[in-house]
Amino acid sequence: MRSIAILLSVFAFVPLANAEQSSVDETTIAVPSGQTVSFYESLMDHPEQDVMARFRFLAPELPTRLADMSYQDLEADLAYLCESFALPRLAASDPAMIVISLAQAPTEFGTPNPDIAEVFEMYSRDGSTCAWEAF
């Protein structure tokens, strides 16, 4: 079993130079585990090349959930967000990778914050589903 990819903002992303961004939708999204999740923002890295799509979600209960949740339950939430939220919004593009992340609070993309728990997984599109990709 893989260990959970938990980022306490130790892993810093490089800000995207040619990225498109859309943000904050306060609508709560029902995920399999039952935790409270809402869309925060999406980023398309080099949209003219369809390289990578990032979908960031807020999950205020994340630190508590991580203490009690199995990796399988966490991955089920991330895969669900990829398939039910990200894929429908990517109908016009075909990025090589889709990154789904959950964070306990909003953070500026690419700016580390050791006080904010964050997890993410990478997927590729496989028809109408998301296929997990090791990174």
Kindly describe this structure:
The protein is of the alpha+beta class. The chain has one domain. The protein has helices spanning 62-68, 71-89, and strands at residues 6-7, 19-30, 36-45, 52-58, 97-103, 118-126, 129-133. The longest helix has 19 residues, at 71-89. The two termini are 15 Å apart.
- What multimeric state do the chains show? single chain
Q: What share of the residues does DSSP label as strand, in percent?
A: 35-45%
Shape assignment: globular
Number of helices: 2
Total of domains: 1
| DSSP E strands, number | 7
Spans of 5+ residues with little confidence (pLDDT < 50)?
Answer: 1-21
Q: Helix and strand string, N-terminal first?
A: EEEEHHEEE
Ends distance: 15 Å
Q: Residue share in helices? A: 10-25%
Name the structural class.
Answer: alpha+beta
Radius of gyration: 14 Å
What average pLDDT do the residues reach?
A: 82
How many strands, what sense, and barrel or not for the largest sheet?
7 strands, mixed
How would you summarize this macromolecular structure in one to three sentences?
Pfam families: DUF6497. This is Acetolactate synthase. The protein is of the alpha+beta class.
Layout: helices, strands, pairs:
Layout: E1 6-7, E2 19-30, E3 36-45, E4 52-58, H1 62-68, H2 71-89, E5 97-103, E6 118-126, E7 129-133
Parallel strand pairs: 4-5
Antiparallel strand pairs: 1-6, 2-3, 3-4, 5-6, 6-7
Which labels suit this protein?
globular; alpha+beta; 2 helices; disordered N terminus; Acetolactate synthase
